[in-house]
């Protein structure tokens, strides 16, 4: 008997096909005249051979819920929920390439083959909903082996641990923590050892091995984590890197290790989009460069040099975040407070795709950033956690009719009538 409820092709299992894909603006302007001119947020974007149906990307979000680095059904439901509600792409949380690169003992990992299958199940489901999915590969550097936020400070706020460090007998790996130099993030964080060349090579090889696993899983893109005070950012910033060898001191030296890994990652992941998330500033007090011409902290000027080198290596998109490497950082928070960094990078490299992130909530304001060419895509984290249907409500706010999931269509009559 023919199944009139057509199956999504190319995936394992039966899932009704959504046509067009969920979160796609309808093209039939006779029926949907308001879609004649689409806001940039709902225009597709093609990078390499991958077409993203809209510009709404789920930002990487640690869930502290993995089982020895393996994704669980929590991740299937959490990430699957974004796929059924119209986001253009989903970024799997920071995923460690070696066990001691995890922030907490329950962080995601991709250092062994048994971690492939649960991620493959998630990717299959997300693809069945017509949504793209990538993964953020990471190493926590000097901030690894720490407590999940709700363990450090419980939700009721009645308890705060004395230290962020997870001890060995609590499942931690604080004795194995390393960074460029023996400089802790804070007194209540692990005390890192300075990495040897052998350890750097091991981490570099682990990134490449994880990329091979990403191919087996079928991810659409990879984002390398070079932000938020984790290993690559530790090397980049003069606040965390005091090395006297070829990997510390001058800007060129501080860029050397991250660029070395990025170059090999690009070679290994040649066919599909490669993104890098950076912190564009440390938000430390004082200038980026002092009067004597010494770099005092990481900032936008060095970020521009770093991004220029990444563009030469063939990185497809830079995701411009900030902070996380200086415990006394002073951030001026506000809607789109990091858009300025994406904008500066876009000005310097107009042909490079830029993602902006950080306190982005209002669709009209977000659309203005995209329209003004300050970024090409937006990454959203907390707004999507509060409201996974954000793409649908954003479409309504911008006056566009987009496809809801077949199963949810009856919840969006206003969308269908617009
Ligand atoms: C629960 C949670 C987990 C996060 N985990 C990650 C992560 O794994 N990798 C990362 O680069 N940023 C992470 N972030 C930062 C977000 O990706 C995002 O950059 C930040 O929250 C600002 O965006 P927002 O204002 O839309 O939340 C996390 C944020 C939250 C709230």
UniProtKB/TrEMBL annotation:
Tell me which SUPFAM superfamilies the record gives: FMN-linked oxidoreductases (SSF51395)
Report whether ATP-binding shows up as a keyword of the record: no
**By its UniProt entry, which Pfam families does this protein fall under?**
Oxidored_FMN
Q: Where is the NADH:flavin oxidoreductase/NADH oxidase N-terminal domain?
A: 41-397
Against Gene3D superfamilies, the record matches this protein to: Aldolase class I (3.20.20.70)
Q: Which GO terms describe its molecular function?
A: FMN binding; NADP binding; NADPH dehydrogenase activity
Cofactor(s) recorded for this entry are: FMN
The name under which this protein is listed is NADH:flavin oxidoreductase/NADH oxidase N-terminal domain-containing protein
The species this protein belongs to is: Serpula lacrymans var. lacrymans (strain S7.3)
